[in-house]
Specification:
heterodimer, A: about 120 residues, mainly beta, B: about 120 residues, six-stranded mixed beta sheet, four-stranded antiparallel beta sheet, about 0% helix, about 55% strand
Chain lengths: ~120, ~120
């Protein structure tokens, strides 16, 4: 089955700790994205990557970091600098190269992070 | 900058009744528009997308949306609601990225409730 997996589904973290969320895709997509979802606010883009070893900040990158060492993997680290990290985090991927505005993003099942 | 407004954060319909979820967009270029559905604690699933091929777009699960440039709208409809349609629905406008992929700007979502 082709798709996007995110782990873990639920994550608890103490204040001051960094935590890494996993995102893997087997769709052979070039582009990958991380979103944060808060109640009543829709989804907001944290980071995106269009190709291996390259990534760009989205609208709310402060307090987050990413890496893209492999095409199929795009982990997100929530650092202690993120002031309000409790949220639902969604990873997505799309074909990317040359697809443009019509590119369809496919989403993973999400990770719910709670800071205690 | 692109933006999306979804009127009505909560919509309630009776089973078998028409579903109408409203979406208005703002874009300086011809837009690409998407509707996604999200069930509780899950990722987003694509319902349909507008890519300028036809103004009436048919999607999965009996949903369709009509692009109206003069009204800058892309409302989602379904002739007859089913209990399984209860979910949160997101409208998004897309902007192509140099280098591939796209940036989605989401509305704040509409929670659809279907009553017996």
């Amino acid at each position: 089955d082709g798709g996007i997996t995110q782990s873990p589904k639920y994550l608890f973290r103490k204040e001051g700790q960094n935590v890494t969320l996993s995102c893997e895709q087997n769709l052979n997509h070039d582009a990958m994205y991380w979103y944060r979802q808060d109640p009543g606010q829709g989804l907001r883009l944290i980071y995106y990557s269009q190709i291996v070893n390259d990534f760009q900040k989205g609208d709310i990158a402060e307090g987050y970091s990413v890496s893209r060492e492999k095409k199929e993997s795009f982990p997100l680290t929530v650092t202690s600098a993120q002031k309000n990290p409790t949220a639902f985090y969604l990873c997505a991927s799309s074909m990317g190269v040359l697809a443009g505005g019509a590119d369809t993003q496919y989403f993973g099942p999400g990770t719910r992070l709670t800071v205690l | 900058a692109q933006s999306v407004t979804q009127l009505g954060s909560h919509v309630s319909v009776s089973e078998g009744a028409l579903v109408l979820l409203r979406c208005n967009y703002s874009s300086s270029v011809p837009p690409y528009l998407f509707w996604y559905v999200q069930y509780p604690n899950q990722g987003l699933q694509l319902l349909l997308k507008y890519t300028s091929a036809a103004t009436l777009v048919k999607g999965i699960n009996g949903f369709e949306a009509e692009f109206k440039k003069s009204e800058t709208s892309f409302h989602l409809t379904k002739p007859s609601a089913h209990m399984s349609d209860a979910a949160e629905y997101f409208c998004a406008v897309s902007e192509g990225l140099t280098g591939g992929g796209n940036k989605l700007t989401f509305g704040t979502g509409t929670q659809l409730k279907v009553e017996l």
